[in-house]
Amino acid sequence: MTDSARKNKCRIAVDAMGGDYAPESIIAGSLQALEENRDIELLLVGREEEIKTYYPGGKERCKIIPAAEVIGMNESPAQAIKQKKDSSLVVGAKLVRQGDADSFISAGNTGAMLAASTLLTGRIRGVGRPTIGAPMPTMSGGVCFLFDVGASVDCKPQHLLEYALMSSIFAEEIYGLKNPSVGILNVGEEEKKGNELSQAAYKLLSEANINFAGNVEGGDILKGKVDIVICDGFIGNIILKFAESVLGLIKSKFKRAAEESFVNKLKIGAARGVMKSAFSDMDYQNQGGVPLLGIKGINIVGHGSSSPLAIKNMIFRAEEMFRKDLLNKFEKVLEDNMGVNKV
Amino acid sequence: MTDSARKNKCRIAVDAMGGDYAPESIIAGSLQALEENRDIELLLVGREEEIKTYYPGGKERCKIIPAAEVIGMNESPAQAIKQKKDSSLVVGAKLVRQGDADSFISAGNTGAMLAASTLLTGRIRGVGRPTIGAPMPTMSGGVCFLFDVGASVDCKPQHLLEYALMSSIFAEEIYGLKNPSVGILNVGEEEKKGNELSQAAYKLLSEANINFAGNVEGGDILKGKVDIVICDGFIGNIILKFAESVLGLIKSKFKRAAEESFVNKLKIGAARGVMKSAFSDMDYQNQGGVPLLGIKGINIVGHGSSSPLAIKNMIFRAEEMFRKDLLNKFEKVLEDNMGVNKV
């Protein structure tokens, strides 16, 4: 991307059919974003008739791109991408590849979005595996990023290095964390701890141009011991889903305590509002989407139950990543630290 | 063990020097157990002079076994076991091997306890890897066991099968869960999901004589979707430590909310007692120790900060496992399901 391009409008393709409340929620969020931000152009991808129920068309910065098929939330990603060539996910991912959009966002099937982005939009030069990260709340009130949370279940050490390099730039540029510290998720702090993957990754990360803090343990994520925790997507996905379920456990515990006695019920009732706000950042729905780092486009995937607000935030996030030229920065850091040929 | 042996007193060796509050807490808990249960004999292992400060000796069912050295909480397990041959951990583990004790409990260095148990007490016939499990609270108010939580960081599918067989018996006999359901921790429910280990383990577990429920996800542990979740010790340890840190996050969130306004402070103060009791089962200290399954002895390891109550509970747990003849039941199920020669 050239400097002049950065001054242009950011063209964002939106999967109008993806998510539990599509297309209504998706279009509502898109139109809000369009109103609040004059530097974006939107391409609503999906079934024309359904989209027109909520957006009849006519706005200069918001076009409809027809796509007749929809990939369901539970369809097998690789197969769906192959078979449904006229789905909103496939068409959207291709818009970025063809240079007709700078970014593609979807609240649909995460696996299919990942597959479409990897196979159709394509990877940045030097990236073996794209990665999805998630911000976790910390005890000090900040966030700790977990990369990868499910893009790749069988990682090589080289892939963990890619995650560390790209997530460091992402955390600094988008979350304002200066020179973010990076740890490898492990069962102990010593260099020789852990399984084969973590030991080999330790060596690679300690030689890379990042703020490497060594190994961290499972308890260090919420403690916020480092800004970024690197792990393979198998364990990252399991931790992410475990963390999401904690809120359910907390609710069930308060519910049971309230049922035990009327006094308990009054006490818990008094604190309910405070509790709700305290735990709001543990609710995935408030996060508004996570980017797929390593893709040759600003592709962001959101939670299936994304609200219009979440969609709007995803669009704004995409524009910010575009303005900050993250893709070129990723490519450069990968080249500097690994040499593209090595990958 | 013969039927007549089961009618004898259960002889439990206690690591008097292990844990943050040793020997005082350990001995206090031991003496309480001795008083409440007439079917046990205790062997307090450690520095004689220090033990005598809290227990001068003289009780018929409580002997002191001298051991001059102590393995610290942060010492390298394998090395410590090798070098400190007169440590309480080494001496205690050997007492079981020699047939002088039926059980050994310690609140000391978990890794060293595991190493001493595996190398000195020895494994049950048919066990490739011993395993440590942990009970997690569920939304329905029950528990879900996680095996393994750190005994082995590089597992083979066969090891996961051993964990599933032994933990099924443990959960049924000790926790009263009839025909407990067993799931493999994975990133999705389908058989073909996950990494190489989980896919191979799926096949083995589906052919074993257990109540196999297929794959479960990270969010299913606290939901209590199954009674037992099987995983390798690398991920199990990370999840256990993550789960332990959740309580810290909850506390920090309430603290911050209370600091925000005086009204919040009053509201949270009102609910504090209820919250504390609701989350008491998420506090490792209340669990009282976890057994090492697969060892040729009832060896149990407790949290470093074990209170006298936790120690007493560990001793009672050991006696229960002894009376229920778990070691022979483990050996039999391993033989029936795998054939010892295959291991």
Helix-strand string of chain A: HEHEHEHHEHEEHEHEHEHHEEHH
Sheet of most strands of chain A: 11 strands, mixed
**Share of residues in strands of chain A:** 15-25%
Q: Pairing-aware structural class of the strands and helices of chain A? A: alpha/beta
Question: What's the assembly state of these chains?
Answer: homodimer
Runs of chain A in which pLDDT lies below 50 for 5 or more consecutive residues are none
User: What's the helix count of chain A?
Assistant: 13
Overall geometry of chain A comes to globular
Strand order, sheet with most strands of chain A: 3-2-1-4-11-10-5-6-9-7-8
Mean pLDDT, all residues of chain A: 91
Number of strands of chain A: 11
Based on CA atoms alone, the radius of gyration of chain A comes out at 21 Å
What level of helicity do the residues of chain A show? Answer: 40-55%
Distance between the termini of chain A: 23 Å
| Largest interface chains and counts | A-B, 55 and 55 residues
Description:
- Two copies of one chain form a homodimer.
- By secondary structure, chain A is an alpha/beta fold.
- In chain A, 48% of the residues lie in helices and 16% in strands.
- Chain A contains 13 helices and eleven strands.
- In chain A, helix 5 (88-97) runs parallel beside helix 6 (110-121), helix 7 runs antiparallel to helix 13 and helix 10 runs antiparallel to helix 11.
- The model of chain A has no long low-confidence stretch (mean pLDDT 91).
- Chains A and B meet through helix 9, helix 10 and helix 11 of A and helix 9, helix 10 and helix 11 of B.
Summarize the SSE layout with pairings.
The structure is a homodimer of 343-residue chains.
Chain A: H1 3-7, E1 10-15, H2 24-36, E2 40-46, H3 48-54, E3 62-66, H4 77-83, H5 88-97, E4 103-106, H6 110-121, E5 131-137, E6 143-147, H7 157-175, E7 181-185, H8 196-207, E8 211-216, H9 220-223, E9 228-230, H10 233-260, H11 262-278, E10 290-293, E11 298-301, H12 308-323, H13 326-338
Parallel strand pairs in A: 1-2, 1-4, 2-3, 4-11, 6-9, 7-8, 7-9
Antiparallel strand pairs in A: 5-6, 5-10, 10-11
